[in-house]
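Q: Now give one record:
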Amino acid sequence: MLCLRCSRGLTAATTPSILWQGVQKTVAQHSSKRTFTSLRGPLRPTVFQSPITPRPSLALTTSPASSNLGGILSNISTPRAFSTTPVLGAPRDTFDPSHFVRKRRHGFLSRIRTRKGRALLKRRKAKKRSTLSH
């Protein structure tokens, strides 16, 4: 803790410390070593590559770590021509029909639990529908 009553404490408080100058030097050294990398490829993967649009470079740096990363990313986002497996990262069919799931989400008991569900049942009852819900 600095004492501001004596002159030694006052000069130490106003001059930058040696520790702070060392921190500034290391920050300047690390910031000069950083380079810009772009990992953005095409917006959406497609089955066939368009010959008109050139593929952008995945990494602008030449360090081994970034080139290895670029190889991994190109394997993920590049389409597989005439392959039976889907493109990695592409949307897949996830619909798996089940009566239990349908009744849980749209059934009579789930309609009773919510205010909008009760309003839906009331509307269907007013129209004299034979089935109110699943």
Notes: The chain has a mean pLDDT of 69. The radius of gyration is 32 Å.
